[in-house]
Structure formats: structure tokens, C-alpha cells
Amino acid sequence: MDCQKKSEQMRERIHDFALGEVSPKSELELLAHVAECEACREAYGQAEAVRSLTDRGVETLVAGEPSPQFMTRLRARIAAEPASERWSWYAWRIWEQVSREPRSYAAGAVVLATILAVLVLGLPRRHVSAPTVTEIASAVSVPPGVATNSPKSLAIPERPREKLASRYVPSPRIQREPEVLVPKGELLAVVRFYEAVHSTPVESEQVYAAQEEPQKPVELKPIEITPLEPLAKPVPNSDNGPGLF
Amino acid sequence: MDGLAASFPDSAVSQDVSLEREFEQRLADCPTLAYRVALGVLRNTAEAEDVAQEAMLRAYRNFHRLRDRERFRAWLVRTAWRLALDRIRASGRRERRENAAYVDSQRGAGTGDVAAAHEFERQVAKALDALPEKLRLVMTLAAIEGYNTGEVANLTGLPEGTVKSRLFLARKKLAESLEWIVKKNPSR
Questions:
Q1: pLDDT of residue B50
Q2: Which of B93, B126, B157 is a domain's end point?
Q3: Does residue B184 form part of some domain?
Q4: For chain A, how many structural domains are there in total?
Q5: How many angstroms separate the CA of residue B144 from the nearest CA in chain A?
Q6: Would you say residue A17 lies in a domain?
Q7: Which SS3 state, helix, strand or coil, does residue A142 take?
Q8: Measuring CA to CA, which residue among B29, B37, B53 is closest to residue B142?
Q9: Is the pTM of this model over 0.80?
Q10: Residue B100: inside a domain
Q11: pLDDT for B114-132, tens place per residue?
Q12: Are A138 and A117 found together in one domain?
């Protein structure tokens, strides 16, 4: 059978068959045809030669072995890997172990809770108290009216000093604002000074005016001068003899 | 908790030892595969060695993350292939590679055949480079694995039927490119 004139399609199929396109259905049919048809046999042989040649060509391109120093270099590079890489290796293995164990989750929760408790409860607290103004007990007794002149917001109820001392417990952790000690009777002046500093520029006259008590004007009265009276002459006593002169 | 804490490090270390041993076994037979894959792309022995080294080093770094150890060869092949392609693209050495002395060897060719062999290899390499990447990978791996389509399917993760059809398409294109050489020199 000569299919030279029959069809180009058969030759195409033979060509593909030679290149490896094998369909089990048509394989036997094609083999039988190749055995009978000389032209197709020739086409098949040619296609197979091309296939074998290309295969060998590609094999040649990828054939070869790495040099003998390849493994030495590779081992040296692995040994020179940074410690972090090795540690990540171990860390990964440990993590795999831990993650498979249900108890590890409970342990992790306990550790987390402990850390949170320490963070929330264990941190030192900072107490910031407002500045206090205390009057120094003056040796000079002041009339009660003067003390009532101070503003109530800053007035501190007087407590016995013993009580204050007993309540004061110095703590290294608690930071307190320093107390401002004001001499007795100058509380109002300090308050005004404070307000002036925080509101308008300070004028010293205002401060002095607040510091000093209002003085009464001195009343000047004319002095009465009475004329001196002449001294009376002593009367000699004749009965007693002459006097000292 | 004490038992738990004590049990982890030992088992982890013992697993590390087994991992190290397993990687050592891979080291014995896989470098050649990585080297050949790289050589199929780069056509330069020194560069292929560099790429194979880099691929093996990456394999070492990430070996512990590989859950299916049986896929190690496929993983290494993909890594070496990508690294080689990256190197080609990064340095634009395609032209240099084509002009290079292919595979630096003539593997027993006679003196008179040296020029012809060079020319033929050059043409094969040119035709191979002209293939689409999917076909080129299958063709290269098939040549490395002795045209065992099952092994190529394992390495690529493709169905064997797909490997066969890609292999056929690759051969057909190569044959179209090289047929004139065969016809010109039928003694081959």
C-alpha cells in the first residue's frame, strides 16, 4: 500500500507517532501501516532519527557532574551558616513539638496571665498631690479675724502638729509635692501673688499692699503749751535764825 | 509541667539529629540533579555549580519546614530551575551563554567532528531556549531522567498524561527547528 498520494494526514500521524504521540487506539493500526507502506516507513524512520538526535542533543546539554570540590564547598557553606539559621532550625522543631501538645497551651496561658498580672498590679504608682500651703504657727498671737481673711479653698484646717507628724509616713515610692510654708499673716499676700503670677504681670505694689495691714492715719493734735508760773519766794523764818544763805 | 518541659528538648533534639541525617542522605544524591537542572538553563559549568550550591543551601535552611520529605527532589528541582532563570534574567547573559563553549566538553568527539559537534549543540541549545518555559522544563527533566515520564511527573507535580503531551510538543518543535540539520547531514 502506498499512501504517498493518499493523504498527507497519514504522514502527519506517522510523524507524530515517531515523536512520541502515542494513542493506544491507533498505535497498532499505525504500526501495521508502517510495516506495509514503504514511504511511510521511510517517513517514520526519518522522524525517529530527528527525535533521537534532538533527545541526544538535549541530553548532552544537561549531562555532566559537579566538580569534586562541589561537596566540600557546600559543606563549608552549610557550616558557615549564621547561628540564627541553625537556631531557627531548632526553634522550629521545638515549636512543632510544643504546638502538638495540648498542655503547652495551658502553660502558655498561665505564663501570659502572670505577665499581665505583673504589668497591671506590680508597677509602682506615682501619687501626685496638689501643692499645699501651710501657715507656720507664729509665736505672735494673731487675732482670729486675720486668719479668716484667707481664701477657703486654700485654708487648711489647723491640726495639732503631733497628729500631722504621726500621720506622715515617708515613703520612697510616693513622690509628694513640696509644701509651701507661709509665715502667719502673710497667707493672703502669697495667694494674691500666686494669682497675679498666673494671670497678669506682677506689680510689687499690689503685693506690698496685700502684705501690709491697712494702717490708720496718724491723728495729729495740737499740743497745748501752758506758760510757766514764777516760783514763789521763800519767806524767811525769823524765829529759826538765819538760813543757809 | 516539669515532665512536659523536660520532654520537649530531648525529643526536639533527637528529631533534629534525624533531620540532619536525612539531609545528609539527600546531600549524597541530589546535588547532581540540581547541577544538571541549572546546567540545562545556564550552559555554563561554573554558574551551574553556583546555582546548585545556592539551591542546596536554601534546601538546608528550609528542610525542616518541608512536611513531605518525599517531595524534596521536586522542591529542589523547582528551586534550582527558578534560581537559574533568575540568574539568566538578572544578568542578561543569554547571548553570552549561546556563544559559550557548551558544557565545556566534547565528550570524546574526534578532532574533525569538533566543529560540527559544537555547531550542532549550539543549534540544539538555541532550539531548546526558544521553547516555552513549560515545555522546556519538561524536556530538560526528561533528558535528565532518561525520558522517564513518570519520574518527570513526580518532579513537576503534573499528571503523567500532561507530561507526555508536553514532551511530545517540545520534541515536535525541536524537530521542526533541527530537521534541516538532519536532512543536511543524514549520517548523524
A1: 92
A2: B93
A3: yes
A4: 3
A5: 7
A6: yes
A7: coil
A8: B37
A9: no
A10: no
A11: 777 788 888 888 899 899 9
A12: no
Low-confidence ranges of chain B (pLDDT < 50): 1-9, 12, 101-103, 105-109
Residue written as grid cell 487675732: A143
Q: Which of A62, A77, A103 lies closest to B39 in CB terms?
A: A62
By C-alpha distance, the chain B residue nearest A49 is: B182
pLDDT of residue B23: 80
Same domain as A116, residue A177: no
The residues facing A135 across adjacent strands are A182
Q: Which of A62, A78, A98 to mutate to test the interface with B (most CBs of B within 10 A)?
A: A62
Asked if the structure places residue B35 within a domain, the reply is yes
Residue type, A57: G
Q: Output the pLDDT for position B54.
A: 92
Q: Which of B16, B32, B182 sits opposite A66 (nearest CB)?
A: B32
* Cross-chain CB nearest to A19 (options B4, B40, B175): B175
Position A170 in a domain? yes
A183 alpha carbon, distance to own chain's centre: 44
- Is-contact A49 A13, C-beta < 8 A? no
Interface of B with A in 93-152 (CB under 8 A): 102-103, 105, 107, 120-121, 123-125, 127-128, 139-140, 143-144, 147
Q: Is any Cβ of chain A less than 8 angstroms from the Cβ of B60?
A: yes
Q: Which of A56, A44, A17, A16 is nearest to B128 (CA)?
A: A56
Q: What is the pLDDT of residue A153?
A: 47
Q: Compute the count of residue pairs across chains A and B with CB atoms less than 8 Å apart.
A: 142
B188 touches chain A (CB under 8 A): yes
Q: Which residue stretches of chain A have pLDDT < 50?
A: 1, 137-143, 145-153, 155-156, 241, 243-245
Predicted pLDDT at B83: 93
Q: Is residue A66 part of a domain?
A: no
Asked if B160 contacts B148 with a C-beta cutoff of 8 angstroms, the reply is no
**What is the complex's ipTM, to 2 decimals?**
0.77
The answer to whether residue A243 is domain-embedded is: no
- The per-residue pLDDT for range A57-103, each reduced to its tens digit, is 888 888 888 888 888 888 888 888 775 555 566 666 666 666 777 77
- Domain of B40 in residue numbering reads as 1-93
User: Which residues on chain B are in Cβ contact (under 8 Å) with A59?
Assistant: 143
- SS3 assignment, position B157: coil
Residue in B49, B102, B147 nearest the CB of A66 = B49
**Are A116 and A143 members of one domain?**
no
Q: How many CA atoms lie within 13 A of B130 on its CB side?
A: 15
Domain of residue A164 covers 133-211
As for how many domains chain B has, the answer is 2
